[in-house]
Structure formats: structure tokens, C-alpha cells
Amino acid sequence: METKLHWERIYTSKKSEEFSWTQNTPETSISFLQGFKVPKSAPIIDIGGGESKFVDYLLNEGYTDVTVLDISEKALERAKARLGDNALKVNWIVSDITEFVPTRQYAIWHDRATFHFLTDASHIEKYVSIASGSLTSGGFMTIGTFSENGPDKCSGLQIKKYSEDLLTSVLQNVFNKLKCIKEDHVTPFNTIQNFLFCSFQKKEIASLSLLH
Question: Are 109 and 135 in contact (CB under 8 A)?
Fold first, then answer.
């Protein structure tokens, strides 16, 4: 509840251009998505989507099964207002990711905003379990986190930084790494934040069974 109240305050008190993570075009997320070569009907979930314009791109490109999840109801209200009638084409979910109970599976799990805020080992483990259960066998994941060269805090909260090896090790029981890149994100305040973006593919059910 404390985390939810923190984000509701953030989205109530700040304008879009005052968020460090603001991007007019989420080019890296788009590039990873295009590399997966999934059909436009593929179910996609954006974790911590907030006011991100990734959903705008998905709708503009004709993706027909889009879900956006965020802990902040206010963030999703703002996204809906921006999209207008197009908001009706999106499934909106207000939930803390560590408490998310999926009722279906997705082909793509996208997260540029949430994972690095999980600093407790039990929350990280729960996230991986939920992501695994939410994805179809062979489904794809894109995660963007602060790299080991990134900031120590974001929006007043401590974060966990990742190297490629560390992120891969956290996910390796369930996911195969496909690709990782580092990228400097220029904030609206002209500061630099170094991100690590990685894509993964959920292991096939047959190979997963061998892990247990």
C-alpha cells in the first residue's frame, strides 16, 4: 500500500514532462518488439506502462490485443485521457506486479519501468514466477533496467542495478537470453541515465520439466 500511495502521489503532482523516464518514442522497446516477429494479434502486456507511449505505437501499428498494467490508477487514467477513444482498445489493469494474478497468458511481456524497483529478493523471485506463468511456452520478454552505471535512485526510491550477467542469472532457470544492449537515456532535464535492455525467450515446456 505504501508503494502504491507513493506512485499515486507522483502521478498526481507531476506533469508528464517532469518524469525522468519520459520518451516521445520508445525506440528501443519498438526495436526489440519488431525483432520478435509476432503477428499483430499476439497478446502483449506492458508492465508498469504508466504514461509510456509504447501503447500508442502498438495501437498505431495495428496490434489488437494490448494490456497495460501499472500500480498507479492515476497513471492509467492519464494514459487513457491521452489516447481518447483508442483507450477502449486496451485492457487496463491496476495492480502491484508482485500481487498480479494473471487470468490468461501473453506472447510478449514488456517492462521498461518496474523490475529495477524490486530490491527485495523475495519480490524479485515472485516477479520471475509471475512473468513465467504469464507467458506462453516460447513467449518473449523485454526488460529495461538501470545498468550498473545507472543512478542509485529513481523517483525518490532505491533501485537495484543490473549487469548483463546478473540479469541473465536471475532469469536463467526459466528464460533463455536472446540479446542485451546498453543505452543512454537522456531525461527531460538533460541528464543521462544508463539502461540495460535485454530480451529473453521462455523455455519450452519440455525443457522446463527437466528443471524440476
Answer: yes
Residues 6+ apart with CB under 8 A from 124: 118, 160, 170
pLDDT tens per residue across span 78-137: 999 999 999 999 999 999 999 999 999 999 999 998 999 899 999 999 999 999 999 999
pLDDT tens digits, one per residue of 36-57? 999 999 999 999 988 888 999 9
How far is 176 from 75, CA to CA, in rounded Å? 32
Q: In the 3-class helix/strand/coil scheme, how is 46-61 assigned residue by residue?
A: EECCCCCCHHHHHHHC
Q: What is the pTM of this model?
A: 0.87
The rounded radius of gyration (Å) of the Cα atoms in the chain is: 16
Dihedral, CA of residue 78, residue 92, residue 58 and residue 180, to nearest 10: 100
Residue-range domains of the chain with CATH: 2-17+27-209 (3.40.50.150)
Distance of CA 121 to the CA centre of its chain: 18
| Dihedral (Cα; 172, 178, 182, 184), 10-degree rounding | -110
3-state secondary structure of 155: coil
